[in-house]
Amino acid sequence: MKRRLLCLLIILNCFSLKAQYNDSTFYHLTLSATGSLNETNTGNAYLLNNSLNFGIKKKNIVLNSTSSWLYGKQNSQLSNNDFSSTLNFNLYPGIPHFYYWGLLNYASSYSLKINHQTQAGLGIAYNFFDKENFNLNVSNGLLYDNSNLLSNNRYHTYRNSLRLQYRIVIKELILFEGSNFLQNSLTNGNDYIIRSTNRLGIKLKKWISLTSSLNYNRMNITRSENLNLTYGITIDQYF
Question: What is the CATH number of the domain that holds 140?
């Protein structure tokens, strides 16, 4: 019963339907907590996802920080204890649809068998479509990856990081949004990372929407992956 009540209180998620930066909004703050619960006669499982996001826009640069924690158990056995914190920036040089990006990321993941992982890199991005109701973006760059795996294997490598990002808004009520990464090691063809997040939102009011998110991650070097479906309510504020 406590678990049911806890999951019923999970009402926040981490993306907006309509709000965005403009000439009078410079900050973006999102607090989120989503989850899922499954109980049967033979077992139970639950998953909690918490995150904090903060963004700043100043002239031709946007700076974002994101921290998230995914925790879950299945039949009282730990299934997820995954933490990630990212600092990234977009630099707009004045060329239409084009910008530079950079990031610094730290992660640890029980489900992907990672003790610690640090990534840092730079790259370029291009908006093939950049309209209010439809955006399609492709970016590419080079990352340095320094990892410590649960098998006590320490290694580092350089990766090519390719991302496909999209955002579709239908009649200002429904949002489809996704960010999908493929990160290949430049020295080992069997060492690649897939990160995929795709979301559906239905707006209730200007700042509240019902949301559902499907996340898939694979760390091929550890032969591990996870697939998570969470749902909740978004509260997202620009100011």
Answer: 2.40.160.40
